[in-house]
């Protein structure tokens, strides 16, 4: 299944292109923003946005993966619904059509007849061969998986609020980016339908850095399938020695009790805050933070599945925080209880909440660090 990984890298790069095109055209970007309503609203935000960019990206990924792996088409899920309402109150089902022209015509109906915007978007969606991926790490990889055993979770754009706000932050080498465009990510995760275990993850950061020609992206991938573990990021033991102590990344809206419990463990500079659930997990993957703790059920399967596969590929993991606090952790050096899974919904919850990581989560690479954080949090909130 190295072919699937390569396809996901290409399609995530295409998704990043669409995300960049949508931001480059200011009038287009204004057109794309709609507010979410009803039960699909992420309770975390007072204002949560549903953008056409999101919908288009998700449908494009579904279309491209389904074309090459028809066995997977009914098992490709994402954050967005492909039903979109245009300015005239008409409901349009957004899909990727057979030709660029047809897709442009369909998008024009969503964009209230704005041909220019529709053409730009359709061009980015159908642009296949333009991508140069210089990732040779995937070439010799043998992934013992069959498409009929797999499902996919897509978050077309994570940290939408940062994407829409569009602040361009200056990044300090070796430090995480608390907010801004860098926190916006395309997340694709592949899991085993039978067990819900994540096996392949792709993360694309469309706005990694800016050069004189514009924004440039960066991609990351990981495979964790039995004894096959591979990742585009170096394993922690192969990295240069890091400074002692422990660092934790949190959402700025994290409970005060959690912040207070962790402060003595980390010291003031090493308790950090960043936007985007996916970006915070990426910070752990990259070693910019040791642990990410989230005490609430405000993330969803599409937020965590892809990045989770990279953590597993590097010898770490992502656990249900509530379970972890209740049942202990890391027996015998490795923890396999409470690992988040991706195949079962919470049938009693409405809308998007069916797919929430309800018990919160904790993401880590090093079991010792996980141990210390859990020890500190027990009984504190
Ligand atoms: C959001 C996004 C938010 C995050 C929230 C996710 O996804 O990643 O940034 O909140 O949990 O569901 P926070 O930044 O406080 O961690 P989306 O942007 O796709 O709605
Ligand atoms: Ca998200
Ligand atoms: Ca999203």
UniProtKB/TrEMBL annotation:
PROSITE patterns reported for this sequence: IMP_2
Biological process according to GO: phosphatidylinositol phosphate biosynthetic process
Obligatory cofactor(s): Mg(2+)
Superkingdom of origin: Eukaryota
GO function terms (MF aspect): inositol-1,4-bisphosphate 1-phosphatase activity; metal ion binding
Keywords assigned: Magnesium, Metal-binding
InterPro entries: CysQ/Inositol_MonoPase (IPR050725), Inositol_monophosphatase-like (IPR000760), Inositol_monophosphatase_CS (IPR020550), INPP1_dom_1 (IPR044897)
Binding site for Mg(2+): 79, 155, 157-158, 303
UniProt-recorded name of the protein: Si:ch211-160o17.2
């Amino acid at each position: 299944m190295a072919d699937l990984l390569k396809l996901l890298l290409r399609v995530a790069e295409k998704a990043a292109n669409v995300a960049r095109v949508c931001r480059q055209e200011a009038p287009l970007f204004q057109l794309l923003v709609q507010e979410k309503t009803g039960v699909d609203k992420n309770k975390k935000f007072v204002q949560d946005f549903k953008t056409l960019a999101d919908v288009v990206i998700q449908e494009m990924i579904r279309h491209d993966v389904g074309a090459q792996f028809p066995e997977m088409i009914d098992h490709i899920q994402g954050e967005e619904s492909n039903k979109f309402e245009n300015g005239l109150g008409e409901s349009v089902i957004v899909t990727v059509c057979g030709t660029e022209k047809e897709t442009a015509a369909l998008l024009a109906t969503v964009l209230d007849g704005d041909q220019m915007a529709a053409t730009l978007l359709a061009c980015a969606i159908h642009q296949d061969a333009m991508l140069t991926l210089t990732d040779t790490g995937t070439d010799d990889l043998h992934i013992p998986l069959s498409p009929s055993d797999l499902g996919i979770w897509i978050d077309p754009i994570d940290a939408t609020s940062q994407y829409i706000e569009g602040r361009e932050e200056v990044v300090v080498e070796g430090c995480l980016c608390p907010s801004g465009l860098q926190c916006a990510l395309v997340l694709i995760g592949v899991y085993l339908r039978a067990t819900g275990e994540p096996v392949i993850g792709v993360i694309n950061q469309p706005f990694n850095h800016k050069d004189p020609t514009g924004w440039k992206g960066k991609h990351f991938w990981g495979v964790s399938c039995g004894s096959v573990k591979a990742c585009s990021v170096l394993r922690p033991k192969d990295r240069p020695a890091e400074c002692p102590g422990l660092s934790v990344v949190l959402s700025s809206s994290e409970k005060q009790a959690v912040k207070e419990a962790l402060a003595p463990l980390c010291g003031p500079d090493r308790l950090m805050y960043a936007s985007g659930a996916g970006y915070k997990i990426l910070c752990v993957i990259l070693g910019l933070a040791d642990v990410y703790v989230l005490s609430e059920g405000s993330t969803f399967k599409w937020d965590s599945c892809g990045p989770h596969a990279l953590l597993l590929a590097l010898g770490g993991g992502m656990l249900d925080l509530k379970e972890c606090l209740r049942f202990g952790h890391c027996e015998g050096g490795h923890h396999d209880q409470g690992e988040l899974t991706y195949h079962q919904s919470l049938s009693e919850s409405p809308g998007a909440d069916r797919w929430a990581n309800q018990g919160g989560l904790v993401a880590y690479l090093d079991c010792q660090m996980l141990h210390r954080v859990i020890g500190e949090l027990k009984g504190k909130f």
